[in-house]
Every structure is written in C-alpha cells, then in structure tokens.
Amino acid sequence: AIQLTQSPSSMSASVGDRVTFTCRASQVVSSALAWYQQRPGKPPKLLIHGASSLQSGVPSRFSGSGSGTEYTLTISGLQPEDFATYYCQHLNDYPHTFGQGTILEVK
Amino acid sequence: QVQLVESGGGVVQPGGSLRLSCAASGFSFSAYAMHWVRQAPGKGLEWVAHIRYDGNNRYYADSVEGRFTISRDNSKDTVYLQMTSLRADDSAVYYCARDGDTYGLDYWGQGTLVTVSS
User: CB count, 10 Å around CB of B51?
Assistant: First the structure.
C-alpha cells in the first residue's frame, strides 16, 4: 500500500502569513491526490482535487501543486478560519490512504 | 443541495456486528462511487471502503477486509457498511463520502459514532 507522509506534523503561524504543507508518497500517485481541511468536530472539507484543482467554493488563497511523489498545499494570506488540521489523500489505487495530518495553530 | 446522512452508530460489544447506513439526496446517487472513512477519537482519517456507482467493484482497507462489507441500494439512494467481528480499535466516527470522480471526495456526511466496548 502507498504510504503518505505529511510534514510538518504541526506548525504555528499568524493571520496573513503564507504557509506550505508537504505530502510525500512512497510511490508515484500520478497527481491522484486530494487535500482536505478539518475543523474540530466537523467532517473533512475537500480543498484541492487532482493535486492542483481548486474545489468549487474554496477561496483562491488555497493552492496545490506537485507531481510524482511530492505534493504541496499552500495557503497565501492566512485567515482566522484557516487554523485547522489538513490531510492529504491519494486516490491512485487501493487503499486510498490518508496522510497523518498537519495541525495548523495560531502563533 | 447534496446531503449525506449517516445512521446506525452506537455501542456494541467486542465481536458484535453493526450496520451503518448513509442516505444520499440532492444528486444522482446511482452515478457516483461512494466511500466510508473513519476517524478514531483524537486520531487522523482512515479510509475504510469504496463501492463503484453500480456496486460491482468494492475495495477495503486491510484493517477491515473480511470483516466489513460495503453495499448500496441505488433504488433507495443509500450506501451501507456492514461491520462484523468488531474490535475496540474499530471505535470511531464513521463518515460516508461521495467520490467526486476527479480525484477527491467532494461531499461528506456529519458522521456516526461507533463505540466497541464491553
């Protein structure tokens, strides 16, 4: 099974900052990669699909990039509602594993 | 609007069984693959199972293979997760999610809590 490793596991930032998270796959996932945001007590919310496509309704400050085995999620200009946990997931084959998550906290 | 509503969670003893349901509305259910994803308390997301739009292809996480069965009834716009031989480490919030068919799960339910405890 393909393993996904997210880094960092947690980070602190301030409103207005630009932050980048990384997701590394143990094998090539051919851009079949999604990013989700999860706030406490809520279900995950799809942000990016197909590695770089912004999901409808998601603010344009979120962007995704990458290929092969390395992918990134960038938030440009953090807003208060962005402090949450972020997960990557591959959908290249089965099982569709998730990364362990990155917790974004207020500095 | 798209809605997914899970039900069927509860407290069950180790070794017991439970069937979860996820009722869909607001979209053409029979055209979409569906997934179950779970999250143990304080832990990350774990993908559990997938079923193709017509029910003909099903895939499972190794941790549930042979114990869980995903199914769907397109006439009822509902996807199910039959769980047997439950263990303490199956305790989690179980979410159903729609496969957006563009490499992402685009809609999620609010989840249903399963607790396996004696």
Answer: 23
